[in-house]
Amino acid sequence: MPIILALLSSLVWGLSDFLGGTLSKKRKAIAVIGGSQTFGLTFVSILALGLGVWTLDSTVWVNGIIAGAMGLLGLVGFYTALATGQMGIVAPISSLSALVPVTIGLAQGERPGTLQITGILVALIGVILASGPELNGKVDSRPVFLALFAALTFGFCVYFMAKGGQINPTMTITAMRATQVVLVLVLALAVRSLGGLVRKDVPLLATIGATDAGANVLFAFAAALGLLSVVAVLGSLYPIVTVLLAWWIHKERLMPVQYLGIAVTFTGVGLISLG
């Protein structure tokens, strides 16, 4: 079950990131994040109340707040990178975020099976291969730096999300979203701007917010049920979905190494599942 939930979170995250990156090409990244996370907060709050799991547990909220702050920093960097670089290149770099929780999980004594360890390494290599074009100097380095920054902050976000998820996954995501909405609202009031958002953006913002929050909830439940070192890798495969959507809808050209990377990544997923 944790493997299925983690893979589903990657699928939904990939869709959310594609939509968020697309809108960020027309609107300011911070505005897209603020608008979408407001809808995300509404979504998870209703879910928490509906499931009867609403709580003010301090441990859940502390972990959720830290995860929210780290996640917000990562989203700003990630959406800006998506808006200024190729989605099919930027997204895979950000998935290196999995290295942070995987390292922490192993340091804390988690011991995946041999097949799972092999699968983790293969999947990470696959995602790196999928970002191969960035390594040949053909594009601007700024999106690369932003994607690496997003990877680091996302990694810590995932770790604290998982810690809170051990107690209450839904409320951890609610705390995350509340933190992000408050921070963005303070920023919006300070600069007195909505970042160019208009009424016609609302349906897309709502979809981005709901899918991102939904992916967070799926991952938090996966982390609560399985090994962090395993589910973190499976939950970091969202760039493959973003890459394929960018190829299909935006007609972004993929290089042969990216196709190889996608194939290698799925091989890694298979090994993890068999383990």
Offer a concise description of the structure.
79% of the residues lie in helices and 0% in strands. It has one domain (2-274).
Structure description:
With 275 residues, this protein is mainly alpha-helical. It has one domain. It is built from twelve helices and no strands. Helix 3 crosses helix 8 (169-191) and helix 8 (169-191) packs antiparallel against helix 9 (202-225). 57% of the residues are buried.
List the helices and strands and how they pair.
Layout: H1 2-24, H2 29-51, H3 58-84, H4 87-94, H5 99-107, H6 114-130, H7 142-165, H8 169-191, H9 202-225, H10 228-234, H11 238-249, H12 256-274
Helix pairs in contact: 1-2, 1-3, 1-9, 1-10, 1-11, 2-8, 2-9, 3-4, 3-7, 3-8, 4-7, 4-11, 5-7, 5-10, 6-10, 6-12, 7-8, 7-9, 8-9
Q: Could you list some keywords that capture this structure?
A:
mainly alpha, 275 residues, single chain
- How many DSSP H or I helices? 12
Order of helices and strands, N to C?
HHHHHHHHHHHH
Strand content: under 5%
Q: What is the general shape?
A: globular
Compute the gyration radius: what is it? Answer: 17 Å
Question: What structural class do the secondary elements suggest?
Answer: mainly alpha
Helix content: over 70%
The tally of beta strands, per DSSP, is 0
Largest sheet: none
Instruction: Count the domains.
Output: 1
Q: State the separation between the terminal residues, measured CA to CA.
A: 13 Å
Estimate the mean pLDDT confidence: 82
